[in-house]
Design goal:
1 helix
C-alpha cells in the first residue's frame, strides 16, 4: 500500500509551521537573553545597595552610640577631691572623701575613686577605711568600697584587710563577708566575715569552712 503523496500546499504549511516554531524559539531565547543581561546589570547595583545599606547602618549605630555615650557623660557630675559630711542616728560624725567622684544622673549614686572614710570624728580614736574604689548611695545612706580595703580600727587597734566593706552611715556599722585578715594587739586573725559596731568599740568575726575563727573583740578603755 503506497503512502499518500504530500501536496505542495501541505509542504508549504509544514514549512511555515516549522519556521513559526523556530521564530518563536528564537524570540523566547532572545527574551531570556535580554532578561539575563538586565539581571547582570541590575544585580551588581542591588549588591552594592545592600552592602552600602549595611555599612550605613553600622556607621549610624556607631554614631548613635557615641552620641548616647556623650549624652550620658554630659549628665554625669564629676567632682575632684569631694568631701561628704554627715552623722549617724546617734549623732556621731562621719566623713567620706575621695580622689574623685562621679554622680550618675539616673541613679544619683556616686562612684568613688580611691575613697577614704573616717568614722567618729568627734572622738580621739577614729576608724579609717581606704580602698581602690566604691559607691556612695546618699539616699540609702550606704557606702560600698573595694577591692583592696584597709580598715584601721581606732577602738581595737586592729588593721583589717579585706576585699569589700559595706558601711551603713545611718548606724555606723561596717560589715563584710568576703574574707578578712587582721593584725593587732592580740596577734593575727583570719575570718570569713566581720562586723565593726559602735564605730570600733566592738568587732565581731565569723568563720566558715577552713576559716573557723569566730569571736568578739571588746577593747578595754575604748570609750570615745
Amino acid at each position: 500500500m503506497s503512502e499518500p503523496e504530500v501536496t505542495e500546499a501541505q509542504q508549504e504549511a509544514l514549512k511555515s509551521a516549522d519556521e513559526a516554531r523556530v521564530a518563536k524559539a528564537a524570540a523566547q531565547f532572545r527574551k531570556r537573553s535580554q532578561r539575563v543581561q538586565r539581571l547582570r546589570r541590575v544585580l551588581p547595583i542591588i549588591i552594592l545597595l545592600i552592602a552600602g545599606s549595611a555599612v550605613t547602618w553600622v556607621v549610624f549605630r556607631s554614631v548613635m552610640s557615641g552620641v548616647e555615650r556623650r549624652a550620658n557623660e554630659s549628665r554625669e557630675l564629676r567632682l575632684d577631691n569631694p568631701m561628704f559630711h554627715g552623722q549617724d542616728a546617734q549623732g556621731r560624725s562621719f566623713r567620706i572623701g575621695a580622689e574623685g567622684a562621679i554622680r550618675s544622673a539616673e541613679t544619683n549614686q556616686y562612684r568613688l575613686v580611691k575613697p577614704l572614710l573616717e568614722l567618729n570624728l568627734g572622738g580621739q580614736k577614729i576608724t579609717k577605711l581606704t580602698a581602690d574604689g566604691g559607691t556612695y548611695n546618699e539616699g540609702e545612706r550606704k557606702v560600698i568600697i573595694g577591692p583592696n580595703v584597709s580598715i584601721s580600727d581606732g577602738g581595737s587597734g586592729f588593721i583589717l584587710k579585706t576585699d569589700e566593706a559595706v558601711i551603713d552611715t545611718s548606724t555606723g556599722i561596717v560589715t563584710g563577708n568576703k574574707g578578712v585578715h587582721g593584725t593587732g594587739p592580740l596577734g593575727t586573725i583570719n575570718a570569713s566575715a566581720y562586723a565593726i559596731h559602735d564605730q570600733g568599740r566592738r568587732v565581731e568575726f565569723k568563720g566558715q569552712g577552713d576559716q573557723k575563727i569566730s569571736g568578739t573583740i571588746n577593747p578595754s578603755g575604748s570609750s570615745r
